[in-house]
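Deliverable D2.4 — example input (structure tokens):
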């Protein structure tokens, strides 16, 4: 037990820090109906990191972080300007295109990097097992600053996410506020993707929020509490399972989240069938 705590304490705390921030942002993403924006921005950040690796940097260094951040800001601009309003093409289509193009670009870049296939795996599933307490503290400090910015903009961002037409009538410029939101999301993703990988970052953003919505906890403190509790359960169970089975921690946590969501759907379906019979 003491060995498990010694090895897994920092990774578990890091994952929980990610859960809190992604849990808040996930509510906005789901309300906006742009479910894959996080994985798209994560992939854009991964492309930026890949470019840094091509020029000799290493994952986890300041150079890689700033390269990922710069690429993510480009992605934030692209996503902000593709808000389609009343047009027939949904914004999700553009987000999917951004994801596909930057995924292909990342692969092309990393094929020119020594051990490129290993770096692709790293960027997809992360290396959360090797996170240090220094990484945890730096990430928590950054998220605290971004959390203050989100708190300042909370009412306006919530209105835009819930009712963009009403936001327009109140004089809010959607693309400017969209860029602010996606820039914050991109900054969060840039930090978390090098720790947790693209797949876990996407899962942390979407799955707990979807589970909260299925329970009717839409917005507010109740949703965030539910998200944090679900994340706490998935992270601890996933970390324990990865330790026992000696398999990658990030991928295991993703699978645990999937199992929890599947169990929730199955239980709700069973309860509904019993009530209707």
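Example output (designed residues):
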């Amino acid at each position: 037990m003491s060995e498990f705590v010694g090895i897994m304490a920092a990774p578990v705390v890091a994952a929980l820090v990610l859960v809190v921030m992604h849990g808040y942002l996930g509510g906005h993403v789901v309300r906006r109906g742009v479910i894959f924006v996080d994985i798209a921005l994560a992939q854009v950040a991964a492309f930026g990191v890949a470019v840094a690796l091509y020029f000799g940097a290493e994952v986890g260094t300041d150079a890689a972080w700033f390269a990922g951040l710069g690429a993510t800001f480009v992605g934030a601009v692209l996503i902000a300007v593709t808000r389609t309003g009343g047009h027939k093409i949904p914004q999700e289509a553009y987000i999917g295109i951004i994801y596909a193009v930057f995924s292909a670009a990342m692969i092309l870049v990393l094929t020119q990097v020594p051990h490129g296939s290993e770096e692709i795996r790293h960027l997809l599933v992360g290396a959360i097992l090797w996170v240090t307490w220094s990484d945890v503290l730096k990430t928590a400090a950054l998220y605290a600053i971004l959390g203050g910015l989100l708190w300042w903009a909370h009412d306006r961002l919530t209105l835009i996410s819930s009712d963009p037409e009403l936001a327009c009538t109140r004089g809010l410029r959607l693309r400017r506020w969209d860029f602010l939101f996606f820039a914050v999301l991109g900054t969060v993703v840039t930090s978390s993707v090098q720790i947790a990988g693209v797949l876990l970052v996407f899962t942390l953003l979407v799955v707990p929020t979807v589970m909260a919505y299925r329970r009717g906890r839409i917005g507010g403190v109740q949703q965030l509490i539910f998200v944090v509790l679900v994340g706490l359960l998935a992270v601890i169970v996933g970390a324990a399972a990865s330790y026992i089975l000696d398999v990658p921690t990030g991928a295991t946590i993703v699978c645990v989240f999937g199992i929890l969501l599947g169990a929730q759907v199955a239980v709700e379906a069973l309860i509904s069938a019993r009530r209707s019979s």
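The first helix runs from residue 2 to 32.
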